[in-house]
Design goal:
homodimer; seven-stranded mixed β-sheet; alpha/beta; five-stranded parallel β-sheet; 624 residues; 22 helices
Chain lengths: 624, 624
């Protein structure tokens, strides 16, 4: 293993750049897949950065003093993996036989199955917002002098999320964040909007509060100077290095030519490219080691969380219970919260008041909200991000990618369904359960009362992966005594008898309607089981199966959500996909099937057919 | 009805501004809900615009020469509806008894149930991107001299989508688009990021290519001059009017104070507000009429669409069939296409080559991609928008809102599922079916071959609402003869016998696997029905029920998608929710349950357990 060095000269860095190009060509040609030309444009930038500036202990990727390096242009993975070879953590053999191969950690786009990768990239416009989150952690949580370097493509500057990122980086004075934009002029299908107009990029980045350095991205001295200046932590502005580069740089057959995005060179071309680039090299060298830093403040020991306690029958909104529980959870120093400028609606403001140093206002920028959560999660913190449930749809790509990043983040969406009333459909989450259930490895929770909310919010703080909790706007009676356990994957049977003829299944607002319906049915001589399916994913198949068995398969599911992919789907998936449905089901599925407008909660629940009267009537029809 | 006038003087416009404030207070107080203060800040802006500049025939909202007025800050609906009263199209009684009430067209946030509303707003950051679409139609399709005025909030300038919009507006030289930003300094939960720093907004907007006018938003003369200049169509830059305003303007108890976002005044406060604002008024007046314009080019008559024809057995990628069919559909002058800078992957480039005047490159900005589709749809065009299926997740909020906008747009996503191979999970759509099924009124299609793709793409062009078609990367055999009908909501039974013991259900890549599995099973003496479920939503319940009945409920569903919300859910929802599942189902559900990496298509389909061997094995297990 090479020892850290700070005296790699520019000539050697340039030589390294050529090696990175050669290896990017070799890796992608060997795989028959990948993006060599997008790697070649940025090779000099990364060679200078990694050999002379990036503070990193390659043998200890978890060192709190390590700089972070994120490839927002994740398709330049050949370059990233060639860098890993150059610092001696990936062998040439692995690069040549692993890249893009089945079972290999050198995936087509970087993912954190590699210990040096913070976040998965490949959906453009996400690496820089993720970097904002890491930089927030560095400046405000770790209080460590690491820098976050993000290699960006020029095409992805068309994504609004990149400007959300720069906006937040300047708002939070993140001098520790540096975007290096590889302006190679060519996108996938043709030239970019702004081509090589570095002045246009400069005006935009400066207007958004960045310090901008415009350079020739193949001039190692200019690169070196810009990186040295941009990496200075003494200021208050994020850095943006605009590097004019040439796609396919160094191989005359493709350099700056269209039609070569995402195309590996055939072997004969690769051979010519390697010759033109000066042949194979096997430099192994490292740049500076990590900065000295105090340990991160992640200690959970001694954190005494005193969750709120609610009295049965008391009217409490689950969103309020969320805020109160979150504020209590803040006793854990790893717990961090953020919101999309609606904290007075989501009740996240209670955490902000109690723990202002660990609350980040993301304003109305839901993509950056999720990315910030992912980014602070990279540093081991446990983020809770909240907004209206409907507005998480704004960030679905970020949530999907967070799962690929193996992030553990807690999302809490308020104002679910038509229950919200007068504001109308734009504010009503009616797709959120479907969206969140479809995320890999996700947990989806939908409590009906304050006690279960408090329990589930605490459980979320230790769940792996993407967890989502849906809260309700209005205040409804507390159903459970404090201390009642609510295991993830469980459910509660609130009404049950040996002679149950039908089961009513709800969550959130519809559980209250199921209880009222069961009372009405009881008065009519019908015994109805009531199930609180607070854990939408994973689903309590055993309890549902028992209910189906007890009632001859007669189930009424009511949900304040569109009919597809929500509570009803969770129930039928659990019962049929597992074989439990073999004995047959007679379902009534009550969901929001027509476009709602404004109105009172009662009017809209009635119109959607998901209130107590409709649930009781559906049960009666099943028994007719 | 008042007659159009161009000589409403500024004093009268100011008087109108006060009326709009009074009516905004009255409407929201009468409803006990709404955003009076956010309406009051923008009242002078809208009074001057509508009385002196907006070219509009209020009795003929479909006039092609009408300007367009979009409230991107949809929560200012009291102001919008008060404007409608002022021009005489909504009565005071409707305003006072309808606003935010059940069954009323005056919803909490504007929707196109009103004839003067182009698009639903209320999810911030969407009205301006939608306006880009309308402006594109005006400049390039209608070639009409209308202007698109968009009232924006200052809080929503934190949404990246607003900058995607300005970027595209300047790229496409949309001088006919004017954003009027109501900089009232206060968001929902506190001050905005940039407060009243109009210079900061100016730098950003100018850097993104706009002509900027910074004014006092309560000075009617300044407003008048800025609107007159910004509305000039002779230039090539979009206009941005930055108006410094005061939230709650005109009522000293709330003006410029925190804590009054989204809160109607109690009746006694409202009374004091109305007195301070000078009392009720009932001005009815109209500004200039529409511009003269030639009829829009929406004539479909005489359009001879010659769809491509494919030979059975020929290997053709469905994405290619999409591009070829779309290019043929371009014979219809109302058909427009756009793409997110991956047209060479989605094959939308074939349309771009054939009909360059009706193709819009949206670069890597998927939110703006959808908004542009919605916007040209406002003008009656039929947009097809394409990108990688995975990247539609970026725009889910826009798709959801498009449904509320009653838009009819056609979305086509390529590169679905693990089938794509080496690129890895960031590029694999594995949530798209769940996401699209949950959209209100959506149609979800997933063809397996080129013939069905060609038929379904043609069908999409006449579907109402949001339609989505999922295409596959690789080339697979054509299964159907040209001319075979593929009704939306149908399916195809490709293998069937009286003694079928099991049914194999697939779509896209997995249908080919089902066919291979059926062949294998046949060799083992097992008769398997094979169903091509090309219409995922609506679902062909009759064919599925018949298959369940014929096979004793033994169904294998295989899908290249996560287990939740996709093909499997469509099948079990159809069979159980409708009561068809009463006889019991014995399902095997093969889906992508683990996080994929890179690999070949065959390796990844095998690993996910959705290839022919796994389908056959699952069928055998059901029969064991």
């Amino acid at each position: 293993m090479p020892t850290p060095s700070t005296d790699i000269d520019l000539a050697l860095a340039a030589e390294l750049g050529q090696q990175l190009r050669v290896d990017s060509v070799r890796a992608s040609t060997s795989a028959g897949s990948g993006h060599p030309t997008s790697s070649m444009s940025a090779a000099d930038l990364m060679a200078v950065l990694v050999s002379r500036h990036l503070r990193y202990d390659w043998d200890n990727p978890d060192h709190v003093g390590n700089d972070h390096l994120i490839f927002s242009k994740g398709h330049a993975s050949p370059l990233l993996y060639s860098l890993y070879k150059a610092v001696g953590v990936v062998s040439d053999e692995e690069l040549m036989t692993g890249y893009r191969r089945f079972g290999s950690r050198l995936e087509g786009h970087p993912t954190p199955v590699l210990p040096w990768v913070d976040v998965a990239t490949g959906s453009l416009g996400q690496g820089l917002p993720d970097g904002v989150g890491v930089a927030l952690a560095g400046k405000y949580l770790d209080e460590a002098p690491y820098r976050v370097w993000v290699l960006c493509g020029d095409s992805e500057m068309a994504e609004g999320s990149m400007w959300e990122a720069l906006d937040k980086a300047s708002h939070y004075k993140l001098a520790n964040l540096i975007a290096i934009v590889d302006v190679n002029r060519l996108g996938q299908s043709g030239p970019t909007e702004l081509s090589w107009d570095l002045d246009a990029y400069r005006r935009r980045a400066e207007a958004f509060g960045a310090r901008v350095f415009a350079i020739d991205g193949h001039d190692v001295a200019a690169i070196d100077q810009a990186i040295a200046q941009a990496g200075d932590l003494s200021g208050e502005r994020p850095g943006v290095i605009l590097a004019r580069t040439r796609k396919g740089r160094g191989f005359s057959e493709v350099e700056d030519r269209e039609g070569w995005h995402g195309r590996p060179f055939p072997p004969d071309m690769a051979e010519r490219a390697i010759i033109e680039l000066g042949g194979e090299r096997n430099l192994v060298l490292r740049g500076p080691g990590p900065a000295e830093a105090a340990p991160a403040r992640l200690d959970r020991s001694g954190a005494e969380v005193k969750p709120p306690v609610y009295d049965r029958g008391q009217d409490v909104a689950t969103r309020k219970a969320y805020g109160e529980t979150l504020a209590a959870l803040g006793a854990r120093r790893d717990v961090v919260a953020m919101d999309g400028e609606v904290s007075n609606s989501t009740y996240a403001y209670l955490f902000a008041q109690a723990h202002p140093g660990r609350y980040f206002e993301m304003y109305i920028a839901e993509q950056q909200l999720i990315a910030a959560a992912v980014g602070v999660g990279v540093r081991g913190y446990r983020p809770f991000a909240s907004t209206f449930a409907a507005f998480f749809t704004r960030a679905y790509d970020f949530i999907r990618m967070a799962a690929i990043s193996r992030a553990s983040i807690c999302l809490v969406g308020s104002h679910a369904g038509v229950e919200i009333g007068a504001d109308g459909p734009s504010q009503m989450a009616l797709e959120d359960l479907a969206m969140m259930r479809a995320v890999h490895g996700s947990t989806v929770l939908y409590p009906s009362d304050a006690t279960s909310t408090a329990a589930l919010v605490q459980a979320m703080a230790d769940l792996d992966g993407i967890s989502y909790l849906r809260t309700t706007r209005g205040a409804y009676p507390v159903l459970y005594d404090a201390g009642e356990p609510f295991p993830v994957g469980g459910s509660k049977v609130l009404r049950s008898a040996d002679d149950d003829q039908v089961a009513l299944i709800g969550a959130g607002i519809t559980l209250h309607a199921c209880l009222a319906a069961a009372d009405q049915l009881r008065d009519e001589g019908i015994s109805a089981r009531v199930i609180d399916l607070y854990s939408v994913k994973p689903t309590d198949t055993a309890t549902l199966s028992a209910a189906a068995a007890a009632t001859g398969g007669r189930l009424v599911v009511a949900e304040d959500h569109h009919p597809e992919g929500g509570l009803g789907s969770a129930v039928v998936d659990a019962l049929t996909m597992t074989g439990a449905g073999r004995s047959g089901l007679t379902m009534a599925h009550l969901a929001v099937r027509e476009m709602p407008g404004s109105g009172t909660t009662a009017e809209l629940l009635d119109e959607a057919g998901i209130d107590a009267a409709h649930i009781a009537a559906a049960a009666q029809r099943l028994l007719a």
